[in-house]
Every structure is written in C-alpha cells, then in structure tokens.
Amino acid sequence: MPSLPRHSYYRFTTVQTRITGILNATVLILSVLLILFISVDTFQGIPFLENHAYMTFQFWVCMVFMAVFFIEMSFAKSKWRYIRRRWIFLLLSIPALNIINLLNLELDAETVYFLRFIPLARGGLAIAIIVGFLTHNRMASVFASYTAILVLVVYFCSLIIFEREQPVNPQIPDYPTALWFSCMVVTTLGCDISPVTVIGKVLQIVLSAMGTIMFPLFTVFITSTVMRLRQQRAGKAAAQHHAAPPPQQLQQQPPSHPS
Asked: Looking at domain 137-233, does it have CATH number 1.10.287.70?
C-alpha cells in the first residue's frame, strides 16, 4: 500500500522515507506480477485453485500487503485515523483462498471464483494510488488515479467477461472481443454484443456506470487544466509587461530665438 506523505497523519524521518519508498516499489512490482499471473491463468484456462504456484504466490503477496499496512500504520501519528482511512486495504489483503483451502470450506464455484479477484483489487488500488502519488499537483494526482482505476476496472471486467462468456456466447469467441466489448460499454457508446450470463450482464451495468461517472470528471480536469494554463500565460504576460522599462520619450527642446 503506498504511503501518502501529503496527509497530516504521517510523520517521516529520512529512514522512514527510504523504507516507504522501498515498500511502494515492492507493492507496485507484486501488484503487476499478480495481475500478470491471473491473466495468464485466465487465457490458458488453468483452474487457479489447482495451481499450487499461483496459490503460493498470492499468499505471500497478501502477506506483504498486510506487512506494509502495519509498517505504515507505525509511521502514522494517529493510528486510529490511519485505520479508519485504510481499513479496506487490510481487508483486501486477507488471503481468503488460502484460508478456504486450509479449513476445507465448501463454497459454490461462483463465490470462490470472485474471491480470487480480491488480491487483484488490492493490487489495482495500490497501483492507482501510486500512479496518482507520482504526479506533481493535486488535480493531476486525482486525474491519474481515476484514469488508472478506470483502465484496471475495464481490464479486470474484460478478463471475467471472457472467462464467463466465451464458452457459452458465440459473440465473444476470444479475449480481444471481450476487451472491445468492455471498452465500448464503458465509453457509453454501446455495442452490438450482448452478454448471456448473469455476471456478464452485471458487469455490463458496472462498466456503464463507471463510464457515466468517470468521463465527466475527465472533462472537468481538462477544462480546469486549460483554464489554469491560460491564467498562467496571462500572468506571465502581465509580469513581463510590468517588468519592461518604459519607452524613453524624446524631450522637446524649446525653439531657439535669434538674438
């Protein structure tokens, strides 16, 4: 989980700043690897509960995420405020699949399938916040975070749609078609592909809602950026105008009269 030194509930020394930077890099790398791991399993049709390598990897990724949570909590001035703001990170870091296997719990296939994406959501959220943190101003940070969230949601939904729809829906024969469908739905342009499974229809609604919420925010950001650039140019022009020396006026000498 990335740290945000802009917030007042953090206190950082030089050592803590270096530790936080290492943790951020570790979380980012593990999040990307987790996304790649799940993507490869999805494309190859590998049952993830039977994939020992995936189960081991996602367990240790969850352990690292939980360790980062408690380390950053130790850096916070107000522990309870940190927990109130970040409890969702801890909840998403719990290795639910490993706990289910350890306790031999009997859950339906749909529930187990979606539990698989909990660490993925944790990694995606971390990527979005880190991307926003790397920007220089608050408006750009919000825009970068929202863009990362939108891209990741589209990608995750396209994976689920491909895996759920491809066996039963002839309109989605491969992953590029599922990705195209997700992009068209999230842009609210519409698509001639119709999902047939319940989860496909639900994700169609989710993507439409995401697009309806996100794209007006992008419009606001672009408008604010253009207005800010115009104000900066106007300010520079005014500063240059005031800094320029006044033009020297030729002094008119009175005409000389012949004596």
From this structure: yes
